[in-house]
Amino acid sequence: MIKPEKLEEYFHQFLDDPSYWVHDGVIDVDLEMLKDWGLLNQTEDEEKLLQDQFPFYFHVLENNSKVTLFNNQFIVWIVPDVIDDIPSTTVMIALIKEEDLKLEIVYKTSGVYNTPKYVLKTLRHFLTEVIDTEEEISSFLEG
Question: What does pTM read for this prediction?
């Protein structure tokens, strides 16, 4: 397990220059992206099915500047901010690799998309994407 003080080091490294750590840079969540992923108008039954299919359990640490979620696979930092009088949230998803972290995805929600619903739906989508990619890489390396 990574020590809490090491988590803070990683957090500040990643936050200072996220485009250095992830090839795609910071992804802005917008209407087109949410539509493409089918995250806009899900019924309660669809929500429940998704939650049952992809349960992610995290420990939660919260302070005045961020919320940190962590489990044996991921560290997720959720950082609220106000930019040009518009509330926004930056989310950084890092994959735990032995005693190291690899920043996988950074995305930002703002304006009408900066609601807990969209922040968390997008988080679930990206976590699933990272897991699927890691499984493909593992099966390729083993095969």
Answer: 0.81
